[in-house]
Amino acid sequence: MLSRLLIVFSLLISLPVFAHTETDCASAFxxxxxxxxxxxxxQQKQDIMKHYLAAAKQRYHDETQVxxxxxxxxxxxxxxxxxxCDSIYIIWMDGTIRVAMSLGxxxxxxxxxxxxxxSSYLTYMDSTPxxxxxxxxxxx
Length: 140
Hints:
Elements: H1 2-18, H2 31-59, H3 64-91, H4 98-121
C-alpha cells in the first residue's frame, strides 16, 4: 500500500514536467514544436471552416433538402480529406516529418474547402456582396 502511495505521489510531483507549455511558433525548431504549431494552425483553420459552414446552413435554414445536401457533402469531404492526408502520412511514414506532412495536407485542404463553402453557399451570382468575406488561401 505504501509503495502505491509513493508511486502516485511521485507522479503528482512530476506532473508539471508533462504539462503543456506554449510553443513560440515563430521560432519552432524541434519536430514536436513544429507539429504542435501545425496542429494549432489546423485547429484554427477548422474553426474558420465551421464558422463558414454554419453561415451556409443559416442561409438555407428553411430548406431542409439543401441543409441535408450540405451535410452530406461535408461528410464526404471529411472522408476524402482523411483518406488523402493519410496517404501523405504513409508516403513519409519512415521519417519524423510524417506528422508535419499530414498536418500540412489537412491545413491546405481545409483552407480550400472553406473557400469552396464560401464560393458555393455564401456568394451570389450578381453583384450582391457575399454573406461573409472571402476566406484567405495561404497555402503554398
